[in-house]
């Protein structure tokens, strides 16, 4: 805070509150961090939970938007308040501005940037989430057959994630068959998988608050020669991306390696998103592995490598792993086999 000339910081984003304090309850909770004091502000429903989970924070109970609690600690000499401008509503901002005799300073990604490099305890949670995802895949394969709907597949994956130890899905499961596989974020529907179609399965779960992410594309019956070749090219691109991940490289360079290979193979026009993203307490975190990704990868960052191609009206292919950045490479923690898989 001192570097930015601030003497107080109001934290609003739930994931940032959890990271800094351990508190997991209340979407409207706040942290107030001063130079020598730190407070958690929530309502009476979370009195006991806050005391248990955030014992090193002084608890202030109030009704949202917590103006009385904030005024109570104005006895401390703070008058330059940093706010998470991406996670504070305009209504809240106006109330703070009109009620507190302080200057407000917008901050972006201050805590998110701290969260990029994981501690070992965080990595273990992400590894376990990945291990559960691998177990789910091996079980779901036996569930797949012509005629089954995308929705039934997605529902089964969501059930298995929880059954095997995840608290919940990290995002809505994607099960996209045939022409629906050309939609990067397809929503599972009543479409039945037909023989010869590809099926994209993209899912992940939260374990102890931390997510992993994996995508595999399988074929239900023999695919066309074109899509068999396309699958092999996407897999090569993904392996190239993984091979260049290491501490010290810029995120954009990973994307560049993947994108250049797909262009050289004639598939570049069908690659319509970035190569990957960070993850942890959220499924999408910094750094972004994109053409604009200017963050230098550091040891123990966790990122995905997920090139895909999407051909309108015909289908698509995506292959994704979660990896931990290491000094001289990376640790692949989603270990499900990626070779072309045809299910009869």
From TrEMBL:
The keyword Protease applies. Keywords: Aminopeptidase, Hydrolase, Metal-binding, Protease. Coiled coil: none annotated. GO terms for molecular function: aminopeptidase activity; metal ion binding. Pfam families: Creatinase_N, Peptidase_M24. Gene3D superfamilies: Creatinase/methionine aminopeptidase superfamily (3.90.230.10), Creatinase/prolidase N-terminal domain (3.40.350.10). Residues 1-117 form the Creatinase N-terminal domain. Residues 124-326 form the Peptidase M24 domain. Signal peptide: none annotated. InterPro entries: Creatin/AminoP/Spt16_N (IPR029149), Creatinase/aminopeptidase-like (IPR036005), Creatinase_N (IPR000587), Pept_M24 (IPR000994), Peptidase_M24B (IPR050659), Peptidase_M24B_aminopep-P_CS (IPR001131). The keyword Metal-binding applies. Belongs to the peptidase M24B family. This is Xaa-Pro aminopeptidase. It comes from Thermosyntropha lipolytica DSM 11003.
